[in-house]
Amino acid sequence: MTSKKKKPTHKTREAKKAIVMNTSKKNPIPIVIAAVVVIAAAAGLGLFLFPADESSSKPVATDNHGRFTYAVNLFDDGQARHFEYADANSNTTIKYFILKSADGVIRAAFDACDVCWPEGKGYVQDGDVMICRNCGRRFESVKVNVVQGGCNPAPLNRTIQGDEVVILADDLKKGQGYFNFSKKA
């Protein structure tokens, strides 16, 4: 007696082939959910490690004499505020920050130093210190405008006139060398 084997149909052959080749159709929903979770986690970690500098803005006001003025009370919270000055003559954007230090003095500095300026990263604030975004060195806010050279924030002249902090455009232009990245070695 001979037994007859059933001849496999096209459908069953394709199913067996898919199993062997591991090409069977899979439910894409778990993969999509995993991808969304990974992307959301990466975005959250990015915001945690590199927070947006919400204090960045253009100068508050300027008059016809090349003066940038800021309300003194803008700095009462001790948070560094970052600003930019676009020097049309040199085609350079000069970055700087102003903060009120722990001793109550309003201080200003270029967002660069003598050492790390070629990287163009500037400083970020952590409590009462400014941290170089390139090398990680920390500088007490009370030393901004006092200590200069090395990796200290480069001092920027400022005056307090009544209830305003005043920075002159001529003083800002003195810092353009820190932001001329065409001379990077």
CATH class category of the largest domain: Mainly Beta
For CATH, the homologous superfamily of the largest domain is named as Rieske [2Fe-2S] iron-sulphur domain
The largest sheet is: 4 strands, antiparallel
- Derived structural class: alpha+beta
Shape: elongated
The name of the CATH architecture of the largest domain is 3-layer Sandwich
Helix count? Answer: 3
Give the helix proportion (percent range).
10-25%
Order of helices and strands: HHEEEEEEEEEEH
CATH topology of the largest domain: Rieske Iron-sulfur Protein
Rg, rounded, reads: 29 Å
**Beta-strand content estimate:** 25-35%
> Which residue ranges are poorly predicted, with pLDDT under 50 across at least 5 consecutive positions?
52-56
Would you count the extended β strands for me? Answer: 10
Gap between N and C termini: 90 Å
User: Number of folding domains?
Assistant: 2
What is the typical, i.e. mean, pLDDT?
79
Q: In which order are the strands of the major sheet placed? A: 1-2-10-9
What does this structure look like?
The protein has about 180 residues and is of the alpha+beta class. It folds into two domains: about 10-50; about 60-185, Rieske [2Fe-2S] iron-sulphur domain (Rieske Iron-sulfur Protein, 3-layer Sandwich), CATH 2.102.10. The chain is built from three helices and ten strands. It has helices at about 10-20, 30-50, 170-175; strands spanning about 60, 65-70, 80-85, 90-100, 105-110, 125, 130, 140, 160, 165-170. The strands form three sheets. Strands 1-2-10-9 form a four-stranded antiparallel sheet. A three-stranded antiparallel sheet has the order 3-4-5. Strand 3 and strand 4 (about 90-100) form a beta hairpin. The radius of gyration is 29 Å and the shape is elongated. The termini are far apart.
